[in-house]
C-alpha cells in the first residue's frame, strides 16, 4: 500500500508489514536476506520495502534496507499495542465484571496469572490470596467481604505472631461486620501498633498487596453481578506492584480511619464489652 503517512495508513501498514520491519531492527538486511528469513517470495519483499519506504519507516542504503528512527518507534508502538490487546483478550471475561471506570490497567495485566471460579476448584481464586497472606510479612488490602475466615486468622497471625504489619480499607458494610464479628482479633492487632483500619463507601474490586522477604505479590479479586467470586488476577512484576501501591494509597486517601474503634477505653469500648460477654475474656 502507498499511503500519505497518516496514522490510519501507518497502522494498516504495520498490521501487514510488521514482520518485515522487525527483521530490520537489529541491523541492515539485503532483500535476498529478507526473502530467506521471512520465507516469502522476492516480489513480496519488494512490495513490502516499497510500502515501508513510502511511509518513511525504512530507507535503502545501497543493496541493503535499514529501519529509520520512525520505523523503530512505529514498530515499538505497534508491538506494545499487540501485547496490550492480547492481555485484554486473555483477561477479558474477568475485566467484564468490573465497573467501566475501574482503574485496573495494563501494568496489572502484563505477566499476570488468572484464577477463575470453575469446578472443581471454585474456591481457588480466594484460596490463592489466602495462601499469600499465610506466608506474608506485610499486608495491605481493600476489602468488600470476608470470603474466607482463615484469611482473617492469617492476617491476625501475621501481625500478632510474626511481627508483621497490616492495613486494610474496608467498605462501610464490611467495616460494621468487622466491628461486630471480629472485634477481638482486630483489637489484638491494633494493640501491636502495626495495624490500621480504614472505611470507605464503596470499592470497585478487592485489592491485596502481600510482601515477603523475597518478593511482593499483588492480587485483584473480582465478583460477578450475583456477588459471588468470579476470579482473581495475581502479579508480582515491578510495574504491577507500583500500580497496586499507588492505587491502595488513593483508596486510603479517600477513606476514614477507624483504627481507634478497636482500642478498649476509646470508640470500641462498648463493642469490647459485647465481645467479653460472648467469649468470657478480658481485652486488657
From TrEMBL:
Transmembrane segments: none annotated. GO terms for molecular function: DNA binding; DNA-binding transcription factor activity. It comes from the Archaea. Keywords: DNA-binding, Transcription, Transcription regulation. Residues 273-284 have a biased composition (Basic and acidic residues). Gene3D superfamilies: Winged helix-like DNA-binding domain superfamily/Winged helix DNA-binding domain. Residues 15-84 form the HVO-A0261-like N-terminal domain. Residues 124-253 form the Methanogenesis regulatory protein FilR1 middle domain. Residues 263-284 are annotated as: Disordered. This is Uncharacterized protein. InterPro entries: FilR1_middle_dom, HVO_A0261-like_N, Tscrpt_reg_HTH_GntR, WH-like_DNA-bd_sf, WH_DNA-bd_sf.
Amino acid at each position: 500500500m502507498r499511503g500519505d503517512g497518516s496514522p490510519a495508513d501507518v497502522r494498516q501498514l504495520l498490521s501487514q508489514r510488521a514482520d518485515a520491519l522487525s527483521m530490520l531492527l537489529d541491523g541492515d538486511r539485503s532483500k535476498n536476506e529478507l526473502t530467506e528469513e521471512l520465507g516469502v517470495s522476492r516480489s513480496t519483499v519488494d512490495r513490502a520495502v516499497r510500502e515501508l519506504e513510502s511511509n518513511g519507516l525504512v530507507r535503502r542504503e545501497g543493496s541493503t534496507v535499514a529501519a529509520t528512527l520512525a520505523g523503530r518507534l512505529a514498530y515499538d508502538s505497534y508491538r506494545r499495542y499487540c501485547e496490550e490487546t492480547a492481555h485484554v483478550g486473555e483477561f477479558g471475561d474477568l475485566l467484564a465484571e468490573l465497573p467501566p471506570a475501574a482503574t485496573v490497567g495494563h501494568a496489572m495485566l502484563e505477566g499476570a496469572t488468572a484464577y477463575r471460579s470453575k469446578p472443581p476448584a471454585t474456591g481457588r481464586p480466594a484460596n490463592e490470596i489466602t495462601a499469600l497472606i499465610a506466608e506474608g510479612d506485610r499486608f495491605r488490602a481493600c476489602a468488600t467481604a470476608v470470603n474466607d475466615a482463615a484469611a482473617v486468622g492469617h492476617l491476625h497471625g501475621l501481625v500478632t505472631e510474626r511481627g508483621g504489619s497490616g492495613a486494610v480499607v474496608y467498605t462501610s458494610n464490611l467495616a460494621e461486620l468487622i466491628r461486630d464479628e471480629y472485634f477481638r482479633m482486630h483489637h489484638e492487632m491494633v494493640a501491636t501498633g502495626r495495624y490500621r483500619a480504614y472505611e470507605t463507601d464503596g470499592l470497585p474490586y478487592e485489592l491485596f498487596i502481600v510482601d515477603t522477604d523475597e518478593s511482593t505479590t499483588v492480587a485483584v479479586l473480582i465478583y460477578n453481578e450475583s456477588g459471588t467470586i468470579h476470579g482473581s488476577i495475581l502479579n508480582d512484576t515491578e510495574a504491577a506492584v507500583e500500580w497496586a501501591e499507588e492505587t491502595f494509597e488513593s483508596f486510603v486517601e479517600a477513606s476514614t480511619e477507624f483504627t481507634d474503634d478497636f482500642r478498649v477505653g476509646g470508640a470500641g469500648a462498648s463493642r469490647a464489652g459485647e465481645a467479653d460477654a460472648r467469649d468470657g475474656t478480658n481485652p486488657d
